[in-house]
Amino acid sequence: MKKGKKWIAAALCLSLLSGGCAAKGDANNVSVQDTKEDEKKEAAPEKAYQAKLRVIEPAAYSNAEGLPLEKGSYISIIGKAEDGQYWKEVQKGVKQAAEDLNAQLGYEGKDKVKVTYIAPSQANSVDEQVNILDEELARYPVALGISIVDEQACGVQFDLASDSGIPVVAFDSGSDYQGLMATVSTNNAESAKVAADQLADQMSASGEVIIFAHDSKSKTAKERESCFADQIRQNYSGISIVDVFYMDDLRPWQDAMAAEVDAGTYKRGEEEGGLLGGEETVDPESITEEEVIDYILSKHPDLKGCYGTSADAVGAIVHGLDRIEKEDVMVVGFDANDEQIEMLKDGKVDGLVVQNPFGMGYAAVIAASRAALSIGNEAYVDTGYVWVTKENLSDKEVKKMLYSGK
């Protein structure tokens, strides 16, 4: 009721400002015109991407209203990768936010607010991202958004940004750096716990599990690994986490595998026409990631479940299980590229946490704009997620969160 009274009061104020002494006929004309405008707005079909913005909380980060940036302002958005469906979707969100900002402000041509997305040519390259960050800070953007590859790597640059009056927001993957104006991301702790509960249910709360983490450096990967593991250990005593494999750190596994091949306790497979083992010495660096994954999976004949913290991790699990022809292993994880959705449909994946990369890119630009204008930012902006299975794949609420490279 209070909202209704406020709306009526606002309408009355607008009427008085527009000319409270207007003739009765004029007032009727305005009313008819307003009604037609309202009908037009109601009739306008909603664009598909808007459903992805509605799940963002707080809602202020789902639109470009009330952000009076100066003409020609420059905002820099730095990602972890240039290619890949997830990052292409982030870029779409960044682009849409820029378009909405300029439309709201009425800027055209050289007056437009410029928003760029740039990322390492080699995905998740720490050194390249740091170099890009240095270059972008030298361009003095009004604000900068970054998905941090290594949460320990950018402290010096963030200090420099602070000294230069350039506010920084994080998106997708943040850090504990105290000077960040906001972090825009999935609720990784909550969603990782959901994945743990779902996997435990699929496994009847009993058996061995391996975690495949997409890296050992990013805060996102660390949160998804630790929160999943904590949920399992605290609530499912019948489940054992027997290994954690970091996809950016092959060397410990290469060394272990090489030692076993040399000792004759593990057969690497066919190479140059024969089986290695016993009499051959293996260079650990010659062992590929695929061989390492096969080795890890083979070491656990009683394995019942696997959890991947990204699309790449989920793909690595499924391809590894296929190669060693191991069945009846439940697989859950994050992200929903076309490949992962096909795996879900084929029954090779049992469930996925589907994030909102479009909303992440969009909200990152809005958060950066608010920071540039010294408008208060929320410390954390939740861009939402949905749990997807083969059974609910066609549900309306699920479909609106999916993205495709086709």
Features:
alpha/beta; 14 strands; 2 domains; 6-stranded mixed β-sheet; Rossmann fold; 406 residues; 6-stranded parallel β-sheet
Break the fold down into its secondary structure elements and pairings.
Blueprint: H1 2-19, H2 24-43, H3 50-54, E1 74-78, H4 85-105, E2 114-118, H5 126-137, E3 143-146, H6 155-163, E4 168-171, E5 183-185, H7 188-202, E6 207-213, H8 219-235, E7 239-246, H9 251-263, E8 270-271, E9 274-275, H10 289-298, E10 303-308, H11 311-323, E11 330-334, H12 338-345, E12 351-354, H13 357-372, E13 380-382, E14 386-388, H14 396-399
Parallel strand pairs: 1-2, 1-3, 3-4, 4-5, 5-13, 6-7, 6-10, 10-11, 11-12
Antiparallel strand pairs: 8-9, 12-14
CATH topology of the largest domain: Rossmann fold
Count of discrete domains: 2
Distance between the termini: 47 Å
CATH architecture of the largest domain: 3-Layer(aba) Sandwich
- The CATH class label of the largest domain is Alpha Beta
Radius of gyration: 26 Å
- Count of discrete alpha- or pi-helical segments spanning 4 or more residues: 14
Q: Supply the CATH superfamily name of the largest domain.
A: Response regulator
Average pLDDT over all residues = 89
Question: How would you write the strand order of the largest sheet?
Answer: 2-1-3-4-5-13
Q: Hey, roughly how much beta strand do the residues contain?
A: 15-25%
Global structural class: alpha/beta
